[in-house]
C-alpha cells in the first residue's frame, strides 16, 4: 500500500472518530441540560390552554385531594374561629403535557413557578378567615410530575377558619368544625373534586386541646348549587367535645358552695340582723361575680345556655335564703310594740272610804275562816301564767328557720340531681 493510500485511510478514521465523539458529547450535553418548561408543552404550544381543564373524552377533570392535619389550636368561642396547620395535596392528570426525554425515575421534581403557566385546580378554602404560607427555610411547597402525566402539588399552610358553634347545652356541648375546599370558577361539568381513594385524611394522634377533645374526624362532600352553577366542594369535619373537668372545678363546685354558705344564716339567731343580712348579700354578690366570670369567654347569645340555667337557679336559692330572713324578721317584729298601759282606777270618794275598808276586812276574815274550817292551805287556785306575745313570736321565727334548714337543702339536691340526669348523656 502506498503512502498516499495510508494517509487517506487515516484521515477517514479521524473524521469518523470525531463524528462519534461529537454525538456522544451532544447526548451528554442533552442529558446534563436543565429541564425547561417548554419541554413539557406539546410540539405546538398553541394547543395548550392553561385556562381550560384537561378534559379527556369530554369527561370532567377529576382532582384528588389529600389533607394531613398536624395541629389544631387557638379555638376561640367568642369569635367562633380555630386554627389548623395542614399539608394540602392536589393530584390531577394532564395528558396534554409531554414527558421529559431524560426522565428515568418514577417522578420528577418541577419548578413550582411553572404552575403560573399550567392549568391547575382553582380550589380555595371556603370558610377560611386567613391563610398563612410557610416560607421557612424555603417556601414549603413542591410540584411533582409522574410518568403517567399525573401532577402532584403539595403545600404547607396555617389556616384560621370559621366554625359555627351552638352553645345551647354549654358546657356539655359538642362542636363540629369544618375545613371546606371548593372550586372558584369551574362547575362540575368541567372539574370534580374527590378524596384520595387510598389515604384521604391523616390527623396527628398527638393533638391536645386545653378545653376540647378531638373525638372524631371524617371527610364529606359539601357540593352546593349556586345561581351560576353547581360547584364541587369537599370538607373535613372535626368533632370536638368539651372537657367538663375545668368547668366542674371552676364553676359548678364553687357555685354550690356559695349556695350552701348562704344557708348558714338559718343557724344564726333571729335577733342577729347584721350577721344574717351581711351573709345573704355577700353570697348573692359573690354568685353574681361567678356567673359573670363563666360568661366571659362566650359571645352574647340570645338563648339560654345550660350553665345559665344552673347559675340562675343557684341565684334564686341565695335570694330566697335572704328573703327567708325577711319573713323571720317580720314574724319576730309583730310583738315589738309595748303593750298599752291599763287605765288607772278612779280615785275613791271620801264618803265611802270607811265602809269600803270595813267590807274588805270582813271579806278577808270570811275567807280565812272558810279555809281553816276546810283544812286547806292558802294557795292560789288560778292557772299558771302563759308565754308572752314576744316569746310566741320568737318561737314562730325559730320554727321557720328549722323548716328552712331541711327544705332548702332538700330542694337544692332535687334540682341538682335533675340537672345532672338531664345532661348525663353529654358527659
From TrEMBL:
<feature type="transmembrane region" description="Helical">
    <location>
        <begin position="403"/>
        <end position="422"/>
    </location>
</feature>
<dbReference type="InterPro" id="IPR036719">
    <property type="entry name" value="Neuro-gated_channel_TM_sf"/>
</dbReference>
<keyword id="KW-0732">Signal</keyword>
<dbReference type="InterPro" id="IPR006201">
    <property type="entry name" value="Neur_channel"/>
</dbReference>
<keyword id="KW-0472">Membrane</keyword>
<protein>
    <recommendedName>
        <fullName>Glycine receptor subunit alpha-3</fullName>
    </recommendedName>
</protein>
<dbReference type="InterPro" id="IPR036734">
    <property type="entry name" value="Neur_chan_lig-bd_sf"/>
</dbReference>
<feature type="domain" description="Neurotransmitter-gated ion-channel transmembrane">
    <location>
        <begin position="251"/>
        <end position="332"/>
    </location>
</feature>
<feature type="transmembrane region" description="Helical">
    <location>
        <begin position="309"/>
        <end position="332"/>
    </location>
</feature>
<dbReference type="InterPro" id="IPR006202">
    <property type="entry name" value="Neur_chan_lig-bd"/>
</dbReference>
<comment type="similarity">
    <text>Belongs to the ligand-gated ion channel (TC 1.A.9) family.</text>
</comment>
<keyword id="KW-1003">Cell membrane</keyword>
<feature type="transmembrane region" description="Helical">
    <location>
        <begin position="247"/>
        <end position="268"/>
    </location>
</feature>
<feature type="transmembrane region" description="Helical">
    <location>
        <begin position="6"/>
        <end position="25"/>
    </location>
</feature>
<feature type="domain" description="Neurotransmitter-gated ion-channel ligand-binding">
    <location>
        <begin position="48"/>
        <end position="243"/>
    </location>
</feature>
<keyword id="KW-0407">Ion channel</keyword>
<dbReference type="Pfam" id="PF02931">
    <property type="entry name" value="Neur_chan_LBD"/>
</dbReference>
<dbReference type="InterPro" id="IPR018000">
    <property type="entry name" value="Neurotransmitter_ion_chnl_CS"/>
</dbReference>
<dbReference type="InterPro" id="IPR038050">
    <property type="entry name" value="Neuro_actylchol_rec"/>
</dbReference>
<keyword id="KW-0813">Transport</keyword>
<keyword id="KW-1133">Transmembrane helix</keyword>
<dbReference type="Pfam" id="PF02932">
    <property type="entry name" value="Neur_chan_memb"/>
</dbReference>
<dbReference type="InterPro" id="IPR006028">
    <property type="entry name" value="GABAA/Glycine_rcpt"/>
</dbReference>
<feature type="region of interest" description="Disordered">
    <location>
        <begin position="373"/>
        <end position="392"/>
    </location>
</feature>
<dbReference type="InterPro" id="IPR006029">
    <property type="entry name" value="Neurotrans-gated_channel_TM"/>
</dbReference>
<keyword id="KW-0812">Transmembrane</keyword>
<keyword id="KW-0406">Ion transport</keyword>
